[in-house]
Design brief:
alpha+beta; 2 domains; Immunoglobulin-like; 1 helix; globular; 4-stranded antiparallel beta sheet; about 20% helix; about 40% strand
Length: about 150
Amino acid sequence: MKNLKTNHLLILVVLGTFSFSLLTLQQSLGQTISDDLTAPTLSALYGGEEKGKFDISVQNGTVIIEASMNESPTGDEVYEGWLEDKGDASGYSLSLGKFDETNKLIANQTMVNPYTYTIFYVTAEPVNDPDPNPSDVLAAAKLKLPFGQ
């Protein structure tokens, strides 16, 4: 019986090491995921009319995001990009900063576990917005696997 418990523990350790190795390999390869940024629908933050484009990759723990919007914000607003872990997770919104004058966002950020995020979205914020919370979503993309874990 003691050998059986030891064998089970050894199998769990090997499987855990294998899973960690796959995640590490996946992070170091830096596969890019591309998607459309779409307007919210009645039932989701995305899925409507195309509003822009979005690319995300993870290279050695650094998340690289490039996004662009098809139209400019109004004169007293700027676009801001966000990552969020929707669903059963914390619902935390992480600002990635504002889009530039050409309606593009390029963000590089080192993260401990970027794969907890499930959605990237864009809001229009006042130019000198003192509120750290996001406004209404203008466009979004659901992050594909390996994100959302």
